[in-house]
Specification:
- The complex is a heterodimer.
- Chain A has a single domain, classed as Rossmann fold (3-Layer(aba) Sandwich), CATH 3.40.50.
- Chain A contains eight helices and 13 strands.
- In chain A, helix 3 links the parallel strand 1 and strand 2.
- The longest helix of chain A has 12 residues.
- Helices cover 37% and strands 25% of the residues of chain B.
- Chain B has ten helices and twelve strands.
- In chain B, helix 1 packs parallel to helix 2.
- The radius of gyration of chain B is 17 Å and the shape is globular.
- The chains are: A alpha/beta, B alpha/beta.
- Chains A and B meet through helix 3, strand 8, strand 9 and helix 8 of A and helix 2 of B.
């Protein structure tokens, strides 16, 4: 635990910081709540526009399929709420893909924060299994989200669709071809991998986000 | 490049870790959460918790344990044992499991695989297959087992079915499972290496990852299953529980042997 000292130093401020996690019909949101709690914060899991807008940091997590999650966000007015946010937002996995313009998964129009379209992995050989499931490296890491990342680090991925390299790319991973494993634009950050399941490396990324 | 995974498996009975040898004798081996944390810190890539309690009471205890594991463990974990229907899957995922492993229930009701994939996504559905090569003469000294008949078993290896391993694995794949966890009953507990010929045939025909299980005794066995067996991941229990093969040293060895692992 190399960051232990810092965590203790910041404990009085972290308790006061309001971290909101977007509640919607994606899977495995609980694991993000658990991960944020392990860092000493007390996140709220909510779909209330007021609670989301008044939070200091927002995490938009989840596993799932693009069209049904996007439909749910629209029906509950969460699409407009997310687009109106001005504080730091972190999209994770399907959360990242929904922040893009469009997804090939059931031809879904997404939120359009990142000017890039989500594609399906196309295997080039039998070894390229889809979904990509497991640990792969992130390289060329940029922005304070990856503060103190000096070498390629392993993080945990589960996905069948990917975001190509683009102007918003802040981390690159190679699976079938190089693609964006993290994005950044303005107050929006996003990771294709699951920091909440990526051991101590994932904890560093979540902590960096919460300390932005 | 995607790393090959090392997965310790913890058998749980009444909230405690146990390990069966050849599916029969059980020995105690520690608190499940503490053991899981220790494995995570040593570099385990995932964990598998198998509930071998049959009782209703035991199942409740296991669900509470899953909630505790999810709070404390920061790597993915799979739970299995006693999953018969979609409601069981939902209960365990809600408790915080990342994946569920089904075995006998899938053999009894193959459509359960389709249902899990449809409701929760293929990635949560691991299908565990226990199979025995019925022609034991091809078992040792690297001779191919692919010519032998591999029959699937259910109820923890106690009940033989009509199903052939390779046909069943293909069906599981096509129904939308996310991974196959294959345990060779001939190799399990013997510590003489994994069933690499059968594993290779599975890995080369399926489009989903294959987890090798049964037979780990030395670190060389892990290298062989990745190189010869084309396995995507390797699972073991007792060699990890009793410290015979420390995970950190195993991964350093595999890395030095040119296998891509997470260090």
């Amino acid at each position: 635990m190399p960051f232990k000292y810092k965590e203790e130093e910041h404990s009085s401020t972290t308790k006061k910081m309001k971290v909101a996690i977007v509640k919607y019909n994606a899977g495995n949101i609980r694991s993000v709540v658990n991960a944020v709690e392990r860092l000493g914060y007390e996140p709220v899991l909510t779909d209330s526009p007021e609670e989301l807008r008044s939070a200091d940091k927002i995490i938009f997590p989840g596993q799932g399929e693009a069209s049904t999650t996007m439909k749910y966000l629209r029906e509950h007015g969460l699409d407009k709420v997310i687009l109106s946010l001005t504080q730091p937002v972190l999209g994770i996995c399907i959360g990242m893909q929904l922040l893009c313009r469009h997804s090939e998964e059931y031809d879904t129009q997404c939120l359009g924060v990142f000017d890039v379209d989500v594609k399906r992995f196309v295997s080039k050989s039998h070894a390229d299994k889809v979904p990509q499931m497991g640990w792969n490296t992130v390289t060329d890491c940029k922005t304070p989200l990856f503060k103190d990342f000096t070498k390629p680090e392993y993080v945990y991925f589960v996905h069948s669709y990917y975001v190509p390299l683009c102007e918003h790319t802040i981390a690159t991973t190679d699976y079938i071809q190089p693609y964006s494993s993290a994005l950044h634009k303005g107050n929006f950050y996003a990771t294709q991998f699951h920091p909440e399941k990526s051991g101590s490396v994932g904890e560093r990324i979540l902590r960096n986000f919460l300390e932005l | 490049m995607l790393a090959k995974r090392i997965i310790p498996c913890l058998d749980i009975k009444d909230g405690q870790t146990v390990k069966g040898t050849n599916f029969v004798n059980l020995r105690q081996a520690g608190d499940p959460v503490e053991l899981g944390k220790a494995y995570s810190e040593q570099g385990a890539d995932e964990l598998v918790y198998l509930d071998i309690t049959a009782s209703h009471e035991g199942r409740k205890t296991f669900t509470q344990l899953v909630t505790r594991i999810a709070r404390e463990i920061n790597i993915p974990f799979t739970v299995g044992g006693g999953i018969n229907e979609l409601a069981d899957v939902e209960r365990l995922l809600n408790a915080g499991a990342d994946k569920v492993s089904i075995n006998s229930a899938a053999l009894r009701h193959p459509e359960l695989i389709d249902e899990i994939a449809k409701h929760f996504g293929s990635q949560v559905c691991v299908v565990a297959i226990d199979a025995r090569c019925m022609d034991d003469t091809t078992h040792e000294n690297g001779s191919p087992l692919i010519d032998g008949t591999w029959r699937c078993f259910m109820n923890g290896g106690r009940l033989e079915t009509e199903r052939d391993l390779f046909q069943w694995a293909k069906e599981v794949n096509d129904r939308g499972a996310g991974e196959v966890l294959f345990t060779s009953m001939n190799h399990d507990g013997v510590k003489n290496g994994f069933a690499n010929a059968a594993l290779r045939r599975l890995a080369d025909t399926l489009t989903i990852p294959v987890i090798a299980s049964g037979g780990a005794g030395t670190r060389e066995h892990f290298r062989e299953t990745f190189i010869d067996g084309h396995s995507d991941a390797a699972l073991a229990a007792s060699v990890f529980h009793f410290g015979e093969i420390p995970i950190k040293e195993l991964k350093q060895y595999l890395s030095a042997e040119g296998i891509n692992v997470r260090l």
